[in-house]
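Complex record, two chains
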Amino acid sequence: MPRSTLLPEDWITAATAVLIDRGIDAVRVDLLARELAVTRGSFYWHFKDREDLLQAVLNGWRDAATEQVIHRFEGRQAEPRTLIAELISLPFRGRAAERAARIELAIRAWARRDALARAAVDEVDARRIAYIAQCFSALGFAIAEARSRAFLLYAYEVAESLLARQGTAAQKKERSALLQRLVLARLD
Amino acid sequence: MPRSTLLPEDWITAATAVLIDRGIDAVRVDLLARELAVTRGSFYWHFKDREDLLQAVLNGWRDAATEQVIHRFEGRQAEPRTLIAELISLPFRGRAAERAARIELAIRAWARRDALARAAVDEVDARRIAYIAQCFSALGFAIAEARSRAFLLYAYEVAESLLARQGTAAQKKERSALLQRLVLARLD
C-alpha cells in the first residue's frame, strides 16, 4: 500500500472540523478517511488508533491555547493593566477569536463525558487562571485576592463565548468596560 | 396493543438521563424503549416523534429554570441585596444544584449544534439576566449599568458550573465573596 501523502496534521484538522460540526461521536476513522478520500488503512501510518488521534487533537489545542497565553504574558514587556485589558477584549477579536471559541466549546462539550478531554480542559483552565493571577499580583493584589480576581475575569471570558447571543454589540462593549473597572477596583 | 402505563414524564426523565450521560445523539426512541422495557410502539401514545419528545425535554427544563427564577424573585418580598447574595450562592447548593448544573451543561452542549435547543437556552439566559437586572435596578443602578452588572453576575454563575474543577472549596468561597462585593460596588 502506498504511503499516504497526508500529514498527521491533516487528520487532526479534519477531526477537529467534525468535532465542531457534529460532536465527538462522529469523529470516526472510517468517516474521516472517506472525507479525506484516502483509505482507512492509511490512517494507521500516523496514528495507533482513534484514541491516539483524539489525544493529538487535544494536545494540539492545549499547546495552542497555552502558547497563546505564554506569548501574550511572557513574550513581551507589557504592563499588567494592558494585559488585563487585552484579555478582556479577547472574545471580541473577530473571526480568529470566533473560531477559537467554537473549537473550545466543542472540546468543553466533549469533556463533559470524557476523562481525556476533561484533563486537557482542566489543565488549560488552570494555566490560564494562574497567568491571569500573576497579572493581578503584579498590580499589588494579595495572593488569594489576585487568584479570585483572575477567576472572575476568566469566568467572564468563558461565559462571554458561551452567552454570545445575549445582548447587542453595544451592550457587550458596556459590560466588558464595566468588568474591566470592577476587576481593577480596590475595595474599602 | 395495550396502552402503556408509562406517563409522558417517564419518557422525558429517561431521555434527560441519557442526554446527560451519553449526549443528544444517544437519545433515540428505540434505545429508550429498551431501557424502559416497553415496546417502541407505546412511545407513540405520548409523542408524535423523536423531535416531539426532545421539545418536551426542552420545555420541561425551560419551565423549571424559569419558574425557579420567578419564584425566587417575585414569590416573596426579599430585599434585592438578599436576592443577589442568594443568586451568587446558587452553584453551591449541594446535590440539587449539581444535578441542575449537569442537565444545563448537557443542554448547552446540545445547543451548540441544534437550533431547537439553542432557542430554549437563549430564552432561559435572557429571562434570567432580565430578572437579575431588575434586582440591580431596584438597588438604584441605572438601566444600562444594571444590565451589565446582571450579565457579569450571571456569567460568574454559568462559569462556576463549567469551571467547577478549578480551585478548592475555600477558594470558591473567596471568589464568590469577592464577586458579591464587586458587583455591588459603586464606582467613582
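Note: Residues 2 and 23 of chain A are 31 Å apart (CA to CA).
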